[in-house]
Design goal:
This protein is an alpha+beta fold. It is built from 4 helices and 12 strands; from the N terminus they run H-H-E-E-E-E-E-E-H-E-E-E-E-E-E-H.
């Protein structure tokens, strides 16, 4: 009996440092709200196993831009409540979707609050990072986003978007740097105009 008690106590003590590393939902929300305007590099792993790289620009609320490196010629941008997907190889049209129908809207919201009822479906520490899975509680059918954060200081490292049909897209961030970005960077019309000329 004493041996079992000591073993249980040892396991509890071993678990304490890992638990202490887990970031609270409040800390994560505060960090995401602190990102006003930033740039960084990304690596995207698609559902079919293909890999793309590029630069990400974020301006909260509601704006993000993914510029893909060659040989890709794609641009994905969220602005004015919509997501635009532009494949420059295919010409001057963009597929458009409402931003609020994508899990990305959760982190681009004006006020990120992961403590809202029904938003977070999982919150754990994997040994190196805090992992949070979130969905829009009003629109769970649009999928979820799994976010991975490291601490000291808090930093967003990766997200995995699972869309409504179960397709997963992973984005690994190379580190976000605060940078003042003009709103015009997130206008789709100039990008379409470039393709027409």
């Amino acid at each position: 009996m004493i041996r079992k008690t000591l073993a249980a106590l040892a396991l509890t003590l071993l678990a304490l440092p890992a638990q202490a590393q887990q970031l609270s939902l409040g800390e994560i929300s505060k960090y995401l709200n602190s990102i006003q305007s930033a740039v960084g590099t990304f690596t995207q792993i698609n559902a079919d196993g293909t890999i793309s790289t590029g630069e990400i620009s974020i301006k909260r609320p509601g704006k993000v831009r993914f510029d893909y490196n060659p040989p890709e010629r794609a641009l994905v941008m969220a602005s004015a409540g919509a997501v635009y997907i532009l494949d420059r190889k295919l010409g001057a049209t963009a597929d458009t979707y409402p931003l609020n129908q994508t899990p990305l809207s959760i982190i681009l919201d004006r006020n990120v609050d992961l403590t809202r009822a029904g938003m977070v479906t999982a919150h754990q520490y994997d040994g190196t990072a805090t992992v949070v899975t979130a969905q829009d509680p009003k629109r769970p059918e649009y999928g979820s986003i799994q976010l991975k954060f490291t601490g000291s200081p808090v930093e967003l490292r990766q997200w995995v978007i699972t869309d409504g049909d179960g397709t997963k897209t992973t984005v690994v961030l190379g580190g976000l740097q605060q940078k003042d970005l003009p709103n015009r960077l997130f206008y789709i019309d100039p990008e379409l105009e470039k393709l027409r000329n």
